[in-house]
Automatic annotation (TrEMBL):
Keywords for the protein's UniProt record, in alphabetical order: Glycosidase, Hydrolase
GO cellular component: beta-galactosidase complex
Organism domain of life: Bacteria
Catalyses which reaction(s): Hydrolysis of terminal non-reducing beta-D-galactose residues in beta-D-galactosides
Family per similarity comment: Belongs to the glycosyl hydrolase 2 family.
Species of origin: Paractinoplanes rishiriensis
Molecular-function GO terms, alphabetical: beta-galactosidase activity; carbohydrate binding
Name recorded for this polypeptide: Beta-galactosidase
Domain Beta galactosidase small chain/ stretches: 666-926
């Protein structure tokens, strides 16, 4: 048998011309369900003649279609980012080519007798050879694109047998090197549809909006003689191929995704579409929709499910898109392939700007210096054009799709340019995107990934086509940091029209109680946890980055100044008539007052002011919080201002320190041991500390990166293994002084500390001074102290920022208030263990449970509390490796480094670093 199709430069065979997805009254038979399946490690080991109807498949297993077969125990998933997991020798593929033979027996009703019909595959990864009733129909290519075959005359009423041989590797694999798991299979739906003669094989709706007049123009390209009706627009059976001008329509946008039902009909078939009116145009260097500059608050969305692989049930998609909407995400780039067709229906309905991206990535050619890259090789031109036309034809009727993207990371070349010009000739209503065309020779927008803040601002100051970040803010592990600073750039420079966070979801595969990443399936070549870089965990639970992003993308911004509250409307089209403001006054002990106010009438892009509410006088620290919400209670923005006096330093009276006969030192309720001078008892509470602490379990952004591995420098400097030496401990009439030197072995670098202890009515207070010694060349993960506490102190309450974790460059979502949690709940379960759970700007912290400890800051501190040390967390590479120790390890930080985005992009902005320099800070401890 000839397998030449595998190496035919990714050209499908025997497929029908592409067309739009359309629901019509022509009968459809869904073929999803339980199929028969057999996996062979190579084609030569696959059964001969399995396509024959009479073939005996009783020894095979059952497999649900759609499915990614490695997720069901057949072979294994494998992860690489850009490295091809096979030798680069296009168009050839390895002999070891997992081949999944699929068979389905199905019954066709008598009413189908003699009907013209097509068999449709919505997605087969990577290549499928198809037989119906023993007749070969052809070969699919382009995993994430539909393929249809004419089955008229082959399909028959009664029993039919469909046989599909799917190969993991084909020439198309060279074009599908996206950063994700390699997951072969028939992973989208399979269906049969009758195609009546004279029916609606294809339609192309054109629904423009004139923002000057408020009118719409509607035309439907359909077979000759077709008519359409749109009752809500007063149109009844009007000629399809003429433009119908409508005096007033409700325009479509993510802020108001207004859809009109349009029924298109020929004598033989009636189809139904949901149409949105909008006009995309580049005007004076700005990307506009319906006459306004738009701004992408977007995410890159891969199709992923932790149990099913690339099969994402439609109800899961709906839930995830609703989750995006609740976090003020208004745009999706379908990285890096067209999504399942149902996804775009939901984008139309719920409202997202979509950049629909073609199924194309040849990133692995980076390792040959792009030698042999298909993008500039004429032998691959047909495949490039085939993929582009199949995407455009399939998705052309979606109002949400406002740009076509040629693909991702495929360098540049004539085949990409040809895709662009074909798309323009077919659909001139949507601009073209492709990040690889830096010179904008064949694209309409200047697109970049991971450009630094400074470079984005420079681009904003220069002139040229609209600028977008198709990827930014790499959400790997704990991060990204610096989102708010990017947003500020989008708001400062009109040319900078927003971007798409990389990426929506962690692609972790469920494995017992945790999620697997690259290498966990024994892959010889893999990229580890680089696939765990989303805003939501693999099970779609939001990570703290989601709260941050919601605050940064918030459509309403609250500010304070000159005794007034400023309310800024950051919508593109909406006013604020749906917004209610709620205010709360809070102090460390109570919430003495709250109330409501209407938002001022503010047009999009404008801001208005209202006066401060009347709230009672408060003596100490107090905060006024104003929250803007919609009628469903969804928070649209929040702001805060301090309205009371700052907290005072500790009280006056001071007890003397003294030395006990056994060498221990006593100060009021406190006992210090004589070896290191650490506090070991405070009243009834056993403690151990404080010790200077500068380490954190490196985040992915600390560990990885194009900009020099920070973690390597930290480890070389020995920050994770400081030795502690006691240089002196003295008791005097006013307290104790402990002198220590913290230094890594093998260097002459050190941090000297002087801790001055006092005991008074307020508790036991420490004034810490840190003075560096030597020529340090690194910055620090953090500066602070750590203490070990009894494991029973697991109830946590604090007055400070919360409720979620916060770092200096990721703190837009956290507001000052009084919060309660537990030590266990303070942890964020990042798939790859790393620093997490830090609470910021804390004034008062209490840990309780069979006694308690109160910590107050002078003035504030950050804290983490967990049942293991930072060293434990550092050692673990899987969640199950994080030990649970007997004690709670509490870090009190004066400062902690920001997060940045260095795992793939710029690092922490200089102002969020922790330099080695002198520091002074203080805190007060009391036993409860
Ligand atoms: C960029 C890719 O486009 C994306 O698919 C993903 O791999 C991301 O990086 C990292 O997670 S490419 C990179 C070289 C900038």
């Amino acid at each position: 048998m000839d397998n030449g199709y595998l190496t035919d430069f990714a050209r499908p065979a025997g497929t029908l011309p592409p067309r739009a997805v359309l629901s019509t009254d022509a009968p459809v038979l869904r073929l999803d369900g339980s199929w028969r399946f057999r996996l062979s490690p190579a084609i030569a080991q696959a059964p001969e003649g399995f396509w024959r109807p009479e073939f005996d498949d009783s020894a095979w297993t059952n497999l649900d279609v759609p499915s990614s077969w490695p997720m069901h125990g057949h072979g294994k998933p494998a992860y690489t980012n850009r490295v091809y997991p096979f030798p680069i020798d296009p168009p050839y593929v390895p002999t070891e080519n997992p081949t999944g033979d699929h068979r389905l027996r199905f019954t066709v009703p008598e009413s189908w007798a003699g009907a013209r019909a097509v068999l449709r595959f919505d997605g087969v990864d990577s290549c499928g050879r198809v037989w119906l009733n023993g007749t070969e129909l052809g070969v699919t290519q382009g995993s994430r694109l539909p393929a249809e075959f004419d089955v008229s005359g082959v399909l028959r009423p009664g029993a039919n047998v469909l046989a599909v041989r799917v190969h993991q590797w084909s020439a198309g694999s060279y074009l599908e090197d996206q950063d994700m798991w390699w997951l072969p299979g028939i992973f989208r739906s399979v269906s049969l549809a009758q195609r009546p003669a004279g029916g609606l094989d294809d339609v192309f709706v054109h629904a423009d909006y004139d923002h000057v007049t408020g009118g719409g123009a509607l035309r439907v390209d359909a077979p000759p003689g077709a008519v359409f009706s749109a009752p809500a627009l007063g149109l009844h059976e009007v000629a399809a191929d003429q433009t119908h001008h409508l005096a007033a329509v409700r325009p479509w946008s993510p802020e108001d995704p207004a859809l009109y039902t349009v029924e298109v009909a020929t004598a033989a078939e009636t189809g139904s579409l949901r149409v949105g009116f909008r006009t995309v145009a580049i005007v004076d260097g700005l990307l506009t929709v319906n006459g306004r500059r738009i701004e992408f608050h977007g995410v890159n969305r891969h199709e992923f499910h932790p149990d099913l692989g690339r099969v994402v049930p439609q109800e899961v998609v709906r839930a995830e898109l609703e989750l995006m909407k609740r976090h003020h995400i208004n745009a999706i780039r379908t990285s890096h392939y067209p999504p399942a067709p149902g996804v775009l229906d939901l984008c139309d309905e719920l409202g997202f700007w979509v950049i629909d991206e073609c199924d194309l990535e040849t990133h692995g050619f980076l390792s040959t210096g792009w030698r042999g890259n298909p993008s500039d090789d004429p032998r691959w031109r047909d495949a490039y054009l085939d993929r582009m036309s199949r995407m455009v034809e399939r998705d052309k009727n979606h109002p949400s799709v406002i740009m076509w993207s040629l693909g991702n990371e495929s360098h540049t070349g004539a085949n990409l340019a040809a895709m662009a010009s074909w798309a323009r000739s077919r659909d001139d209503s949507r601009p073209i995107h492709y990040e690889g065309d830096r010179a904008c020779e064949y694209v309409d927008v200047y697109s970049r990934m991971y450009a630094s803040h400074a470079e984005c601002a420079a681009i904003g100051r220069a002139s040229g086509p609209p600028f977008i970040l198709c990827e930014y803010a790499h959400a790997m592990g704990n991060g990204p940091g610096g989102l708010a600073e990017y947003q500020q750039i989008f708001e400062t420079y009109p040319r900078c029209q927003g971007g798409f966070i990389w990426e929506w979801i962690d692609h972790g595969i469920r494995s017992g109680d945790q999620f697997a990443y690259g290498g966990d399936f024994g892959e010889p070549v893999h990229d580890g946890n680089f696939v765990i870089d989303g805003l939501v965990f693999p099970d779609r639970t939001p990570s703290p980055a989601m709260a941050e992003l919601a605050a940064v993308y918030a459509p309403v911004r609250i500010g304070f100044g000159a005794g007034r509250i400023t309310v800024a409307n950051r919508y593109t089209y909406r006013d604020l008539s749906h917004v209610t403001l709620t205010w709360t006054l809070s102090t460390p002990d109570a919430e003495p007052a709250s109330g409501r106010a209407a938002a001022p009438p503010v047009a999009p892009g404008e801001s208005g002011q209202i006066s401060l509410p009347d709230f009672p006088d408060v003596s100490g620290e107090a905060w006024l919080t104003v929250v803007a919400a919609d009628p469903d209670g969804l928070v649209l923005g929040a702001g805060q201002a301090a309205v009371g006096a700052a907290p005072r330093a500790a009280g006056a009276s001071r007890l003397p320190g003294r030395r006990r006969a056994d060498g221990h030192l006593l100060l009021g309720p406190a006992v210090f041991e004589p070896v290191y001078g650490r506090l070991v008892r405070l009243g009834d509470l056993a403690l151990d500390g404080p010790r200077l602490h500068v380490w954190r379990a490196p985040t992915d952004n600390d560990r990885l990166g194009f900009h020099g591995e920070l973690m390597r420098d930290w480890r070389e400097a020995g920050l994770h293994r400081l030795q502690e030496r006691l240089d002196g401990i003295e008791a005097d009439d006013e307290g104790l002084t402990v002198l220590s030197r913290y230094a890594p072995a093998g260097t002459d670098l050190a941090l000297r500390t002087t801790v001055r202890w006092h005991a008074g009515e307020d508790g036991l207070s420490a004034e810490v001074r840190v003075v560096p010694e030597g020529a340090w060349t690194v910055t620090l993960p953090r500066i602070g102290v750590r203490l070990a506490l009894p494991g029973s102190l697991s109830e946590v309450e604090w007055f400070g920022r919360g409720p979620g974790e916060a770092y200096p460059d990721s703190r837009a979502a956290v507001l000052v208030g009084r919060y309660r949690s537990t030590v266990d709940e303070l942890q964020t379960p990042y798939v790859y263990p790393q620093e997490n759970g830090h609470r910021a700007d804390v004034r008062l912290l209490e840990l309780r449970g069979g006694g308690g400890l109160r910590v107050t800051g002078a003035p504030t501190f950050g804290f983490t509390a967990r049942r293991c040390t930072d060293e434990d967390l550092d050692m673990a590479v899987r969640r199950t490796e994080i030990p649970e120790r007997d004690r709670i390890h509490l870090n009190l930080d004066l400062a902690q480094r920001g997060l940045g985005s260095a795992s793939c992009g710029p690092g922490v902005l200089p102002r969020y670093e922790v330099p080695v320099r002198e520091y002074s800070f203080g805190f007060t401890l009391s036993a409860l």
